[in-house]
Amino acid sequence: MLGAIQAVIPQLSEIILEQGTDEKERKLCLEDLHKLKHAVSYYEWLQRFVNDLQNGLYFTERTEA
């Protein structure tokens, strides 16, 4: 999913910067770009969280006494 998002971001940026882009379309693209950048941050955080879970950072095994 992250790869797909990162592939679309440059395309949206091009549309936004293109002089011939109508203002309504530019606004919609800017909104989408904002959402996608937020999604990238979320997926990166999620990956760090999963890595930490796999490394046992949050939970430790309890041994019975």
According to DSSP, the number of beta strands is 0
State the helix count. Answer: 2
Name the overall outline. rod-shaped
Beta-strand percent range:
under 5%
Report the helical percentage.
Answer: over 70%
Distance between the termini: 45 Å
Overall mean confidence score, pLDDT? 92
What Rg do the Cα atoms give? 19 Å
Quaternary organisation of the protein chains = single chain
Q: Could you give a short account of the major beta sheet?
A: none
SSE topology string: HH
Spans of at least 5 consecutive residues whose pLDDT stays below 50 are none
Structure class: mainly alpha
Describe the 3D structure.
The radius of gyration is 19 Å and the shape is rod-shaped. The chain has 2 helices and no strands. It is mostly helical and 65 residues long.
Notable features of this structure?
65 residues; mainly alpha
